[in-house]
Amino acid sequence: MIYERGNAAKQWIFEELDRKFGQSSVRVLDLACGDAKKWKSYLAAHPPTRVIGIDTDANAIERGKSLFAGVSQIELRVFDAQKPLDETFDAVVAMSAIEHVVDRPAFLKTTWDALRSGGAAYLNYDA
């Protein structure tokens, strides 16, 4: 199934999430999610999936909240992915984000610390 047209790396991440987790109940953290519209078709095809999306751009988060109004599978928060979270997830993704991060070691630490044991991280870098 095609979840993300026009970006092969994002499509691959969605395919990997599907391959690893399928229709199981899974919690995903999306770092620097923007408005999270990329999740629309994936969430429709994977009802048990829950996504927490974080981004420092409050306007993007508000657009995403409007886009996903009434959709309980996704929660969007204004938060800096370079700061620690006190939650863990089955998967952490960052799609076309890390190249924009100022403190990459802190961002990667957030990624690592947010993963449950046996979890998976998928990060792509757009040159």
Structural features, described:
The protein has helices at 8-21, 40-45, 58-67, 104-114; strands at residues 26-31, 49-55, 74-78, 89-94, 115-123. By secondary structure, it is an alpha/beta fold. α4 links the parallel β4 and β5. It has 4 helices and 5 strands. The two termini are 26 Å apart. The longest helix is centred in the N-terminal third of the chain and has 14 residues, at 8-21. 32% of the residues lie in helices and 26% in strands. Strands 3-2-1-4-5 form a 5-stranded parallel sheet. The mean pLDDT is 95.
Low-confidence stretches: none
> What best-fitting shape do the alpha-carbon axes yield?
globular
Structural class: alpha/beta
Ends apart, CA distance between termini: 26 Å
Report mean pLDDT, rounded to a whole number.
Answer: 95
Oligomer: single chain
Observed structural traits:
5 strands, 5-stranded parallel β-sheet, 32% helix, 127 residues, alpha/beta, 4 helices, single chain
